[in-house]
Amino acid sequence: MAEENITSTNEVKEEVKGDTPIQEEVNKQEEVKQPEEKKDEKKGLFKKKDDEEKKKLQEEVDSLKDKYLRANAEMQNMRRRMEEEKANLLKYEGEELIKRLLPIVDNFERAIQMDDTNLDDEVSKFLSGFKMIYGNLSDTLKGYEVEVMDILNKPFDPNTMEAVLTEDAPGVEPNTVVDVLQKGYTYKGKVIRHAMVKVSK
Known about the structure:
This protein is of the alpha+beta class. It has helices at residues 2-17, 21-91, 95-112, 121-143, and strands at 146-148, 161-167, 177-182, 185-187, 190-193, 195-200.
């Protein structure tokens, strides 16, 4: 009987020495936790690298986007400038021809300023013909928006006039146009010939 008790006590001791099912489960969980913690550490390192790469890629994307927007804006500006230049060329396409016609208009004006009272009939007929041609030419130029500048007795403007002579003019403000020596013209609002004027001192 005593022997049986000793044996059973030894068995209990061995059972106590061995891991209980609960302890075994705890041990397993701890074993599982350790690799998971290592994995988390590795994940953390990779995550940092991934974040840095994402940040770098985002910066590159932003830089390329900025360059694209700038290039696109520059292209639009160039297109607009070209369209404006083309529109101006079309708008003032007859400018050179009109500039060449203006001296002819000047000559007609000089011719018709002659006093035809002392001329014989034949010269008088020529003069009336000149007046008719001058009238037609002036109407044609007006039809193309060529206008004579109205500057007599106006303040001198260097943007539209050239002062050729100055003179004392009593009762007239200084820098006032007192005589037009050669008419100035505008074409569609643009000055194509400056007027030559005499200005008061």
